[in-house]
Each structure stands twice: as C-alpha cells, then as structure tokens.
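Fold sample X.
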Amino acid sequence: MTTTVTLLHPGAMGAPVGGQATHTGARVLYVPTGRGPASVERARQAGLEAAESLESALSVSELVLSICPPHAAEDVAHEVLEHGFRGVYVEANAISPDRATRIAKACSERGALMVDGSLIGGPPAGGSGPRLYLSGDAAAVARVAALFEGTDVPARPLDAGIGAASALKMAYASFQKSARVLAAVSHALAASHGVGDELTREGRELTARILAEVDHFPSVAARAWRWAPEMEEIAAALDSVGLPPEMARASAAVLRRWEPDKDRLDLTPDDVYTRLRTPEGPSTTT
C-alpha cells in the first residue's frame, strides 16, 4: 500500500529529502501555490507531486513532513492541524526541545501524533545525505524510518521520547554553527594584522576532532583559570579593530564556572557538565 506524504516546504533541504522518500514508493505531495520558481523546480527535480492546495494534500496524506525555517515551525504545525489532519506529523525542524513538546501537545489535542525529528548533515546529493534522527512513539518512529530505508537519508531511531531528536540537533548545531562564526571572527582579526595566510596554514595543521574528544573536557576545566583571562585579552584585541568581542567574552564567562577546579584532572566529563549547570560554581566534592 502506497504511503502518501505531504511535504510542507520544498526548500533546499526539504525537496531533496522528500524526493528520497519517493525512492521507497511513497507518494510525496507539495503545494506550489505561493512558492517561487526555484522551489517549484526543486520539487519537480525531486519527483514530488503538485497538489492544488494544502487542504487537498492533507486530505489524502497519512504523514506530514515539516522541514521549514525554525521560526515558522509552530505556526506551520497549527495551520496543518486547523485543516483537520489526524495522521503522523514529522516535525523535522531545528527547534528547541520545549518547542517540539509544545507542537506535540498541540498535535495530541487535535488527534494527530507527532514524531520528533532532526536532520544532521547537508542535503542529499551524490549518494550521501543527512542523518534523520527520530524520537517519540516507537510505532510511529518505525513507520517514518521505513520511508527512508535504503535511501541517502538514513533514519536513526532513538529510544527516547519527544524532545530527544530536537535536543540532539540543538547540541550539534550549537557547536557546528558557532564554530563557523568563530572561525570567521578569528580570520577577520588575523586579516586586520596581516597574518590571515598564517592562520589558514595553522588551521590546516589542526587534527583535533573537538566534538568527539569528550575525554578532553576535564583538562579544559582544569586550565580554565588560565584560559578565561586569555579570552578577555582576545576580546580586547577584537574590540580594538572594531570586531565583535561578544563570543570571546562569553567563552570567558563559561570558563569562569570551572575556575575552582584549577589543575584538577580527576574529574569526569559528567562532572564537567555539572559545573556548567551550576552558576555559583562547583562544590568542593565530586
């Protein structure tokens, strides 16, 4: 039996992800009304089927796949629910766990069932694509995962409730996107002093996989008492050439939460995380 899906936003990510579901036999609908030529062309290339209206698409769909700008996620969900949709609503946007929980509650109140989803990685292309993490009702998660079995969007079900997939996306994006911004600020500082090429060269020498090196966090905490003042110096250097110092100052503020752990290397990563959740600083015991 063919599964019919309504894709809510045939954007640069949404259209090709929806297109991957067609490879498993799903019928994927989208609404071209109000979309620009680029979106319509993306949908066409992805093999999506145009519907006359959102109402007509939802009336024949068992699933909805929401991939839209995060600020619009709640409004989009409520629009779908107002049309009486009662199937599985896949909320696959980059939103906070709290927002995901609110959308799940709204779905439940209207007789729909939400699956919390998050896409990590770039749009599918050339045989590779993002990982689709899913959490929530196990049967619904399995149903959504089946849509992408064997495609370039591997589904990764989580044994967890609503909010888990969104939390993973927030955790990953907080590092990845902040790192890109920080790199741009760093290069702007280097360029201001004529050493941009040297910074690029140093960047090529880096071998660290920072997000994967969890066991290194205790040594960061142990050196925070030295690193916080260094970040203040960096903030001053940025400010002196008209660059934004806020990220450096924020890093200094975070590092100060670890200052009482000076030179302690006996902490575990979980100890380090606990310190971050305690604004007044760590206790004297672990």
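Fold sample Y, listed below.
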Amino acid sequence: MRASTSPSPFDEEPTIAVLEVDLGLPWPDSADRSTLVQLGDLPVDGAGMALGDAWGLDAWTGMDDEPADGLADVSCWGRHEDDAHAEFGGERIPQYGVDGPYGWLDLPLAEAEALATELTRWRGGLQGKGVAVSLDKHTDSYRFRRAGWHHPLHVGAIEVGGCQVLGIDWDRETTRSDTAVNAMPARCIPLCLKAHEVGQTVMRWTIPPYDFDEEDR
C-alpha cells in the first residue's frame, strides 16, 4: 500500500491525497492499460478509517468490545496534569509533533480500570479544575489509532484476524481537513482499478481537495 500527499489548505501540513493498494493480481493482457475501472464509492468516516481484507475485518473489535489481549492504556491531561503525575506517576506518551499526555501503557484491564477510577475520584471531570481521564481498551479500533501515533499522517498498520489492516486516524487537531471528512461526514469517494507500471492490478482511491464552496451549499 502506498500513499501520496498534498498540502492542506488550512495549515499546509501534508494530507493524504491518493491511496494505492497492490492487489497481487495481473492486469489482463486484453485490457487497455490506460483505462480506469470504476468500482463504486467508498464512504468516509470523519473519525478515521480502516482499510483491509474482508476476512480480517470480520474479526474487527470496536470501541465497545473487550480487548483480545486483556490490556488497556490509561492517560490523563488538563490543567492539573503535572499534579496528577506527581501523585500517581506515569510517563509522557510521545506522539508525532507533541509531547502527548501522561499515561500508562499495556496495563492489565482490571488494573487500568482501578487506576482510571482513582484518577477520576481524585480530580477528574472537574472542568478547568481537574484532569481529563481516558481508559482505552486494546480493541482493534483503538490499536489502529495507537499504531499511528508516531506517523505525521496518523497512519499505522495492525494485524487483525491474521491480516494486515491499515488504519487512518484523521487529524483531530482541526475540525476540518483537506479531505473534508469532518465537514462532510457522509461523503463518498470513488474507488477504481488501474494497471501498475509492472503489469499488476492496483486499487486507487483519490481524495479530491477540499472544496470551500461546497461547505456553503
């Protein structure tokens, strides 16, 4: 799988413009190599996407499922995050371009739940006066976001059901992105097949630039 980028019109940061997936199938000799075969539309979710083999995605676990490895992460941030660090420990969780919150990775689920409860009772949930607390079970929905922590495009690969799955976590720092997925959560973008230069078949997903006029319609 390959990706190319273009600058965002909002902050000039790179955003995904084209995704290509090698399908491991030869392009038919009788077919025109310059032809694009339209497959249909791929719906885009403003919260992120997972692209992978259907057999693997059948085993996908969502946010409400239990983690297969029995582990979870806990993180906290906010006005009194340094006080929480002094009281409970934890380390900065580095992410691309930022220091990240204080947190604890790969805890047994029961231990993680107890810690999150203790943090919340301490000063959690008090707007402007406490810390925000997050308990993230190791579901596939969370693991693909974690896999992209150190990538400038929030992209990472994980194994699901014995298959590699690519996760794309759209940038949450902006309410709108170059792909307009947050401004237009119901948007669908066409998929097509094309011939690769080595004679193989490639699936291409081209994301058009953000249309400022479209937001007003």
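Sample Y note: The chain has five helices and twelve strands.
Also: Confidence is low (pLDDT under 50) at residues 172-186.
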